[in-house]
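Example record used in the benchmark description.
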Amino acid sequence: MSQLVSHLIGVDWGQLFSLDTPLLEIIARGSVVYLTLFFLLRLVLRREAAGLGITDLLVIVLIADAVQNAMAGDYHSITDGLLLGSTIIFWSFALDWLAYHWAPFGRFIHPPPLRLVKDGQLLRANLRKELLTEDDVMAEVRQQGIDDLRAVEAVFLEFDGRMSIVQRDGDSSRKPERRVA
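Model output (structure tokens):
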């Protein structure tokens, strides 16, 4: 009985905090996954990230997975999971820091708004580029209480996937909770 109790509450502290995976492998895996997903999302899914920035979304998903694996025992070591999480946080900070300090990189990370409507007319080439339909734009316009596109001076797709609408009378509106789908 005492052996069973010892087995159930006994913790192998050495294994719990040991480094099971080589340090450089953890850093390389975290870096490759984060940077690959970041650039793919940045280039392909601009409109899908509304509400959260791409880096925010990646950090949440990847950190959750990294920490979950460490907690579930897949790594057998908390240290491995913490190092992977730290690598992901590092890249998130590094990309934001580079975007702030180096303008060309900042334009890649946070590109200028893409105009979808100009003087009440849809810019179909830009809609096609982002795989948006007229119905997608009109849904956003109606969310602002506008039922006729001719009352809109401009609609912009922002870098985070949200649409900004500028009415002809000069009022501009932005719905931060609205996700473009």
